[in-house]
Amino acid sequence: xxxxxxxxxxxxxxxxxxxxxxxxxxxxxxxxxxxxxxxxxxxxxxxxxxxxxxxxxxxxxxxxxxxxxxxxxxxxxxxxxxxxxxxxxxxxxxxxxxxxxxxxxxxxxxxxxxxxxxxxxxxxxxxxxxxxxxxxxxxxxxxxxxxxxxxxxxxxxxxxxxxxxxxxxxxxxxxxxxxxxxxxxxxxxxxxxxxxxxxxxxxxxxxxxxxxxxxxxxxxxxxxxxxxxxxxxxxxxxxxxxxxxxxxxxxxxxxxxxxxxxxxxxxxxxxxxxxxxxxxxxxxxxxxxxxxxxxxxxxxxxxxxxxxxxxxxxxxxxxxxxxxxxxxxxxxxxxxxxxxxxxxxxxxxxxxxxxxxxxxxxxxxxxxxxxxxxxxxxxxxxxxxxxxxxxxxxxxxxxxxxxxxxxxxxxxxxxxxxxxxxxxxxxxxxxxxxxxxxxxxxxxxxxxxxxxxxxxxxxxxxxxxxxxxxxxxxxxxxxxxxxxxxxxxxxxxxxxxxxxxxxxxxxxxxxxxxxxxxxxxxxxxxxxxxxxxxxxxxxxxxxxxxxxxxxxxxxxxxxxxxxxxxxxxxxxxxxxxxxxxxxxxxxxxxxxxxxxxxxxxxxxxxxxxxxxxxxxxxxxxxxxxxxxxxxxxxxxxxxxxxxxxxxxxxxxxxxxxxxxxxxxxxxxxxxxxxxxxxxxxxxxxxxxxxxxxxxxxxxxxxxxxxxxxxxxxxxxxxxxxxxxxxxxxxxxxxxxxxxxxxxxxxxxxxxxxxxxxxxxxxxxxxxxxxxxxxxxxxxxxxxxxxxxxxxxxxxxxxxxxxxxxxxxxxxxxxxxxxxxxxxxxxxxxxxxxxxxxxxxxxxxxxxxxxxxxxxxxxxxxxxxxxxxxxxxxxxxxxxxxxxxxxxxxxxxxxxxxxxxxxxxxxxxxxxxxxxxxxxxxxxxxxxxxxxxxxxxxx
Length: 938
What we know:
It is a single chain. The protein contains 40 helices and two strands. By secondary structure, it is mostly helical. It is elongated and about 110 Å long. The two termini are 55 Å apart. The chain has four domains: 43-355, Serine Threonine Protein Phosphatase 5, Tetratricopeptide repeat (Alpha Horseshoe), CATH 1.25.40.180; 357-522, Alpha Horseshoe (Serine Threonine Protein Phosphatase 5, Tetratricopeptide repeat); 616-820, Serine Threonine Protein Phosphatase 5, Tetratricopeptide repeat (Alpha Horseshoe); 833-937. A hairpin with a 2-residue loop joins strand 1 (571-574) and strand 2.
């Protein structure tokens, strides 16, 4: 069987997925015969465009022989014009560099082009070697500040890009003089040893250089199979053995799974990349450096090179080029090095030990991806990370390149794309019984691509790019090959869902985000039947991770669509019959409280004095509104708002109408606002007249009533869209500050009389007003948590509301644990807070969490055990889960805002204050665990 028959070329891949071009340029428009002249293209520029496009597409043909023929053809215009046209020369060199950095899987294909060009005109290869050597030197010089690095190419980091250049030099080592590539590798490796040897603490940059040299070293094998090379490789291994791997005793803060103080077994023990690479190379060494990874171009390339050299009038032998050693920065400069781009791979290495996520090999008895203990496993992870990071400007191209990665390597490495798990089980069975001789691969390129992307999504303490980038790459991968990719995604989703009990708290939020984005892009389709049993089993629990996940996933889907559409997705087809899963209907009410009816009636009744008469009237109005809504086929979120104040059946409706009219007016002065506030407050404080058709009320707290009246009215008037709400809030910032008790910025006003009177509020008065504002927004948008928190975030942004009050509210009923809109909002507030405010808020959160943990009263001396759920112990089990969810939240904020923050942001006093807070935790085992986090600080 032709080993290439199952491979898709780039063109075939794009035809299947609806692409007709290379992902970078739009398709050519149809050529109509217009009267005007076509724009004349400069022939040199046209040549540059064509040659550079051909270089970018190297290796994307599945037939190796045709690849080499194409490369030979592409080389002709390069050889003919390279020395003549400077712009062409510069464009080719910069394109080669971009290809090495952005698409490193094409390094060997690019090497073939350099080999052929070298045989035809060695000057071209000389330029290439010198250009890339200069690039490496400039990158190193940028560390010391001697030159500015090209930031447009530094997404992954200076040292990471040097790694890719080293790989390329390894691939073209047959035309590099005197094994100079080995000398450069050893030079950098010794540099890493010296850097780490000068410190008793982990040096992340030294670890990165060490890892990068070793991951690049086997590229020497791609085009050189000599015994002499093996000796040089053995020398590198011997030198690498001298690198001291220094790691903290514990890395719990960056591990993706948490055993909840040994309540559970985690799926696997995370392994550090720096500890894996040398043993992987030693295994290759033990196998006499037999690496069946790279495509064998020699049978097709050698005859062409031989013919070219025979016809070369200048040299009949391959010309080799010098590669000088590098001028390295001083140890002092390296120790001060901080990557310019904070979201770079260099930065990850510098701050944290790098651990690899494992998904697919955990769920099958055979491997669907190479194990990470092997060089090939690390190799494909490394390639995928670089593609994702350096092609972040083009998610479509990133997804395509990841999906066709198998084109560029040994044809026997991967099973054909789209091979099902059942088929792999059959292959594995035959492999075990000898039915396949030699054994066939069960590795799937789809699994490698998806697992690599998921590794980037679940990277701790943070992702390199915003999570949405990785989500969209996954979606693009799925849309490129839906039949092949959908089962791969399904297995990953099930893996994370099945391990929700141990998945890190922050990673659960990312998983929720990814799942939401994923299924919303595919008609909200999911096998909901798989989760029916869990929903039923955990029905009495509020804080179990699986119950929480299901509830919040549905809530997020409703936010992206509507209740009716999501309800319709809870179906399956059994024997040609549509079967609804009514188990999930309970989650369609996404209100922020368990019983919206009771909440609204109680809240509003309390505002008006909570008499029996007013409660009855509000109940009648509410039930009538609900009856009207029920008659609507597709009620909107705006329809669901229950705004009472202007209802003529309620007292003070005329006063509410005054406020309504005031707010909808285009502009009112501060003085008018002041007068309205005083007038309304005075009317509310008066005894309400008795009449035959009006309930008499005695408002218990007039100021609270007025604050609710104003803020609920603002929220109601802006309810058409969040844009409308922001517009009206931003218009009246000073007026709202006046109501909230927040200080109003002194401004030079044209009319000094247009200022608010001073209210002379005590601290308690301000606190009450701030809390009443929050309660008012909760009340008016109770059925839409997302809107509640968005409005409150804008009030915080406009400095009308102090964020500490919203944080207190988030913890009061544990909303921050069980409501995704709440945790997302708090996270956004923290991320956008200024340094001093952030420090105060984090300290406040730590204090509150410790208090909440103590209030659960789950013992002092023993580890909190999570009991097996039975019919009688649901409340206690729920408390146990809440305990560990709060510990997970605490860990995520400590990791994000304490572990990797600059020293000046977290001085010894700050850290000691946090330790003092943690020392107040009564449960001793939990206290010991969280105090242990301080040992992992950078």
